[in-house]
Each structure stands twice: as structure tokens, then as C-alpha cells.
Amino acid sequence: MRDNRYMAGLGTVLLFIGFYCLKAALQKKQVAGKENEHHPTTISKRSKLIWLLAGVVALAGGAALIVKALK
Q1: pLDDT tens track for 8-45
Q2: Is-above-0.85 flag for pTM?
Q3: Residues whose CB falls within 8 Å of the CB of residue 21, separated by 6 or more in sequence, listed in order
């Protein structure tokens, strides 16, 4: 039972990491001049690709661990 909880917990953490990576990769360019933003940020295409790959791998790994824990 302890192993199942460990795998499910790790899977949940990986899911959150995956969502964060995808959110970072798919963000739009921020416009300077907003109240809290002083500098616009841009992400290079290479960085977007790395964020997307990391997000997909983390989501897939997390889902696999949760499914394995449920079986």
C-alpha cells in the first residue's frame, strides 16, 4: 500500500510540473506598460520546444504512474 501512495503522489507532482511547463511554453508575449510588468518577455523557439517536450514527458509520466498505482 505504501508503494502505491508513493507512486500516486509522484505522479501528481509530475502532472503539476507538466501543466506548469506547458503553461510556460504556450504563454503569449506580455505587453510592457501593465501595472506589474515593466519589461516585455519573449521566449525563443528553442526554449518553447524544450518546455513543450518537458511538459509532455512529465504529463505522460505522471499519468502512467497514477494509472499504475490504481491497478
Answers
A1: 899 999 999 999 999 988 887 655 555 665 666 677 88
A2: no
A3: 51, 52, 54, 55, 58
d(CA 69, CA 71) in angstroms, rounded, equals 6
**Nine-digit cell at 24?**
510556460
Could you tell me the three cell numbers for 40? 516585455
Contact 10, 69 (CB under 8 A): no
- Tell me how crowded residue 67 is: count the other CB atoms within 10 A of its CB: 12
Residue 15: all three cell numbers together: 502532472
SS (H, E, C) 4-69: HHHHHHHHHHHHHHHHHHHHHHCCCCCCCCCCCCCCCCCCCHHHHHHHHHHHHHHHHHHHHHHHHH
